[in-house]
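BUG: 3D viewer hangs when loading the predicted structure for this chain

Environment: internal workstation, default settings.
Expected: structure renders.
Actual: progress bar stalls at 90%.

Input used:
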Amino acid sequence: MNSVYELLKKEALLRNTIQELNNNKPDPLLIASKYKDEYIALICALFAYGNVKSIVKLLNSFDYSLLDASDATIAKKLKNYYYRFQSNKDILEFFKTMKQLKKHSSIELKFYEGYSKNHSVMDGLATLISFMYDLNSYRSRGYEFLLGKVPTSKNNSPYKRWHMYLRWMVRSDNLDLGLWKSVDKKDLLVPLDTHTFNVGQKLGLIKRKSYDFKAVLELTEAFKKIDINDPVKFDFALYRIGQEKIQLV
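Structure tokens produced before the viewer hung:
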């Protein structure tokens, strides 16, 4: 296992460069990095599912000034938008929710309300997601897919897009934005996707056969054995290894 840890350290160091986000290696973090704004970054993270080129194309096409626009302007500018599970109505209402969120609260402050009690990022997400649902009474399958369910002890979702957002906000290096100062990076959980799940299994970092929240905890604990203070630093490297089908061992 020590050889796996050393390889991950080496790969994480190698990947920690903005060149990893160029046009040949599209990533939603590329768009978030242009703006360095917690609200725009959240939009980038929550739409980050499906084909990565399609994700980046969609995110590049959004007019983020709509977060300060009237509902009528939002409806006009986004009238032809839809994406996979999201209908046009879903996207319009999501932007209205984000506008209200920006008007009412810093995302970091709202997250911190839940997180600060036990230093639990899941408690922080529960507070934040619940608050976002309260901002807009609109509901649909596509809209609720974007926001996700309010976390409870019974939920078993990996919450991949949300944990990716937290990684961007909390960690600070050549990739991650480090916009938040109140959350400790040692408390972050891995934004587990199919690439990191499969590679994690192959490297013996994940024993669990199901892609779920318990697998998130298992991989996070494996990463803590390499760096207890910054376990999620290895996430992006593991993702690229899987995406590029690199054989490490």
